[in-house]
Amino acid sequence: MIKTLKIEPLTKEAFADFGDVIESVGRDHFMINSGSTERYHNVGEVQLDEDGQGIISIFRAKMLEYPLQVKMLERHPFGSQSFIPLFGHEFLLVVAPVGDGTMNIDPATVRCFRANARQGVNYHRNVWHHPIMALRDDDEFLVVDRTGPGNNCDEFFFDESIQMTVELD
Amino acid sequence: MIKTLKIEPLTKEAFADFGDVIESVGRDHFMINSGSTERYHNVGEVQLDEDGQGIISIFRAKMLEYPLQVKMLERHPFGSQSFIPLFGHEFLLVVAPVGDGTMNIDPATVRCFRANARQGVNYHRNVWHHPIMALRDDDEFLVVDRTGPGNNCDEFFFDESIQMTVELD
């Protein structure tokens, strides 16, 4: 199987099987702080297991080489993981749904999204995703994820006969 | 008591009694994603009570009027609350330490900090703080805090004889 992944715009609806889109644009809010602040409430939930602890980290990422060959995806079985751009730059995502929970990914289910400069994402527990795909060097992302006991990262490597590529415009 | 609060630069050390400074500059990291990403790990912890759930929200804030009279501070007894600038703009903080846990704030302990454009904060549980003090209208902040049962917001109003002011340069 050889294919170039279509880069889709990131929307709440299209991303629903994978996680939350963290954005204010087009979302409901309510007023707080005596009317000086709009609260876009709970646009993403921090998923944790019983022994887990939510933590806030920053990832500073180099841009990968394109065309990018998608050789592997990873998942976090014990918690969600969010990526929110801190420098206001677009980035890409490659994801696959949870599936049947086994260590297997159907290549036909792999999708690619482009987050605009005002969008972050929150991958739900067990959603397969590619390591961060910044579109410039030393871009920074806020990450909210889980720490605690156990191995919280599974990696799945595709068979070499499967060639999935992401090409920039 | 009448005083103008001194605006201090935000540093990890100066802010230690109030919470975490969320930043990459000057912090340790380790490499992940085959060396393409620096992880500035656990720069803030999501504090929750037993029944709490961590959530991600966005606050869009108007700039308050300056000189600002600090009439009240609030605290969240069941969890931490973080504010990370999404548009890369400075903002101000006014805080007071947890103290003895009662509904009382010693005005002498109130401090004001200026976060630079690459700094966020994570207020620890029960730390007194002013509602968000953006320095321009419609500035956006990522907020990680707690939802769940119970009243998670106490407000303390200073006696009118206490006049604390924040003046911009």
From TrEMBL, chains A, B:
Record keywords: Lyase included? yes
Q: Which reaction does it catalyse?
A: (S)-ureidoglycolate = urea + glyoxylate
- The EC number(s) attached to this protein equal 4.3.2.3
Gene3D superfamilies per the UniProt record, alphabetical: Ureidoglycolate hydrolase (2.60.120.480)
User: What pathway, per the record?
Assistant: Nitrogen metabolism; (S)-allantoin degradation
Q: Which GO terms describe its biological process?
A: allantoin catabolic process; purine nucleobase catabolic process
- InterPro entries in alphabetical order: RmlC_Cupin_sf, UAH_cupin, Ureidogly_lyase, Ureidogly_lyase_bac, Ureidoglycolate_lyase_dom_sf
- Catalytic EC class: lyase
What are this entry's molecular-function GO terms?
A: ureidoglycolate hydrolase activity; ureidoglycolate lyase activity
Q: Which UniProt keywords apply?
A: Lyase, Purine metabolism
> What CDD domains does the record tag this protein with?
cupin_UAH
- State the HAMAP family in the record: Ureidogly_lyase (MF_00616)
Member of which family?
Answer: Belongs to the ureidoglycolate lyase family.
**Known partners and oligomeric status:** Homodimer.
- What function does this protein fulfil? Catalyzes the catabolism of the allantoin degradation intermediate (S)-ureidoglycolate, generating urea and glyoxylate. Involved in the utilization of allantoin as nitrogen source.
What is the protein name for this chain? Ureidoglycolate lyase
- As recorded in Swiss-Prot or TrEMBL, the protein's gene is named allA
